[in-house]
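Dear Dr. H.,

I hope your travels went smoothly. While you were away I took the liberty of generating a structure for the chain from your last submission, since the lab meeting agenda had it listed for discussion. I wanted you to have the full record in hand beforehand rather than looking at slides cold. The sequence, exactly as received, is reproduced here:
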Amino acid sequence: MADYFLDLSFQVKWPEPAMKFACDLADAWDKVVCGDAAEVTPDIVEIVRRLGAEEDGSTQGAHFSIDEQGLWIHTDESASPEVIVPLLQETMKKFDIHEAVGFEWSNSCSKPRLDAYGGGAVVFTKDEASWTNTGRWMEEQLKDMGWHISLQTPAVRLAKTNGAQIRYRPDDQKWLVLDQSGIQLWGEDFDSAEAAARTYCERTGLADQARAFFAAPEETKPA
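The corresponding predicted structure, in token form, is as follows:
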């Protein structure tokens, strides 16, 4: 059995009452989740329940502590950024803190699972948050590079040197054939740049050249 971890460590420097309030929220969240909120003041319990805390739910998991450097939030094993951020935003709203805060985290595992490694980051204010992670970035880069590679095939090169534009339409992930003026030809779209280029070659009298290019052993298939 594998254990999955999410590690983070960051600090914020706020007024002492705000940092104390954030610590109280984090403590109350975990106590509500664990069914041990009898000693937590009702107003704090009401806040964390409004933010989503419920018995048998997910704990926020991080350690909140205050020292001379500010409020330190860190993990021993794992934490939930999607819980930590609303707790801090609630604090920022209560104390009217107008600044952006950001932190990163890493994902790891006790065993080399293929789905276990990565990381992410978030930047937020009291009113909004922007999230990203390495998996999303990698998928976007692979897709972008795959499109670039698909435009290097012999068929695409032949079509482009003979007046065609091969363009990708991201909204429905289709390829278009345009003339030199940018007007779509034939009103058709295609599932790959290769298919678009072959159609153009066949329909514009380049069939013999096209077949020679298509048979070339160094041809690179589209991603």
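Two observations you may find useful: Residues 216-223 have pLDDT under 50 and may be disordered. The longest helix spans residues 16-33.

With kind regards,
E. W.
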